[in-house]
Structures are given as C-alpha cells and as structure tokens.
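Re: beginner question about structure tokens

> Can someone show what the tokenized structure looks like for a real chain? I only ever see the sequence side.

Sure, here's an example I had lying around. Input first:
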Amino acid sequence: MRVTLGEPSLPRTELPKQQLIDTLRRRFTGIATQDVNTIVQLVSTAAQQKHGTMVVVSAEPAIEAKRLQSQGMPIDPMQLDEESLRAVTNIDGAVLIGVDGKCHAIGVILDGRATPKGSPGRGARYNSAVRYVRDREAPTVAVVISEDGTIDVLPQLMPQIRRSELEEALRRLRDVVNQDEFDDGEFQAVLKWLEDHRFYLQPEVCQEVNRLIEKVGDELSADPMADEVEKFVPDEDMDDSYFLPTDK
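And the corresponding structure tokens:
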C-alpha cells in the first residue's frame, strides 16, 4: 500500500490513461489531440515491458537530447512503431520523446537536483524521474514503469479548481472578520475550506488570509477549545494552471 496526497491506495498495475491525458494537456498547452493519442499509444506499449522502463516527454527534446548526450544515445528524431519501441525500451535508461511523439534519444540516464518530493520507499528509476521533472524549466512529463508493474505519471498534479471558489471563500472570510458581531460558526466553516485547499493559495492570498485571521485573534484566543491556526504559506508548485481555464 502507498499513500499519495493523503489517500491510501494499492500500486497501479495498469496505465492510468485519463490521468496521462489530463497531465499532457495541462503541461503542454495547446497539444494536438493526435499527438496526445500518439503518446498514449507509445506509453501503453512501453508499459508492457516486464523489466520496467521510463518514457519522458519534453517540450524541448532536441535540447535535452544534446544536453544529456554523455549519458544517453541521441538519435535522429523519428516516430517509433510498436516493434521499435519494444526494442529501445529493452535498453536501460529512459526513452526521450517530443510532444509530437518523435523519439530523440534512448537509454538516457536522467539528472536533477535532490528534492524532498521523492520517496525513500521507491526505487532509483522513480526518484530520478521525480528529480528530473521538477528540475526542468521546459514542460516535462515522465511515465515510470517499475519492475513490480507499478505505473506512475509524473508530475502528480493536484486537481484543477475554479478560481471563483477561492474568491468566494475570501469574500466570506472578509465578511465574517469585518462584521460587528463575530460569527464563529461561519468563520470555522470558511477556515476549514481554506485549510482543505491550502495548495491553491498563492502568495498574495496567503498574506491576506493570515492578516484577516490575525485580526480576529482575540476571539480565537478566548476559546480554550480552539486550535491554533497554522499560518498559510504558498506552495512552490502552485501556479495558474491549477485553475480551470474557463474560469480565469
């Protein structure tokens, strides 16, 4: 069993196609449906490897192939068929492809700086993919197929929410803080929503929420049963892509 974002689950042994599609569309804005389908088909074939492998999709595959040429094998960009893909995934290392599905390098050993987002309970292939994806400025998606059959799509993106939901929570917090008579029930309700959605609070929102909570500090400290509210701090991974595009 593993726990991801607080939710326990058994390892995935089938390709999470919908998650992969969603991640590709969110990481590579404007990617064509045909290219999405091509990548999904390639990854589906790679997922059949019993010894494990990795497919990396990069927005700058030519640059990455050249940068990593000392720890991989750059090739002339080509579209791999199923037979070719099975052959190249027999080689240790990652298969590097572009957003159009063309392969630019095989047998690539990924690099990247250490990050606390890794998992000591997972293997080197998974953790190297985590480091690599987080360290790249260009949009990057990696699919890790482990030897135990586990399949991971990286990065593991939080769900998108409506920006209007966050704005409504802020409005409610302002109202409850600024009204003449403090409504503890309403305050606790909106605070719970904010606690559950900490990830989505960007720096300016965190500052305002912390300021408003401090403003009602006397009412909170008067309740011996109230827990101290942990300050809201922005998550380094949060950006506008986590808001639904139709609601910006």
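Each token stands for a local structural state, so reading them left to right follows the chain. The mean pLDDT is 89.
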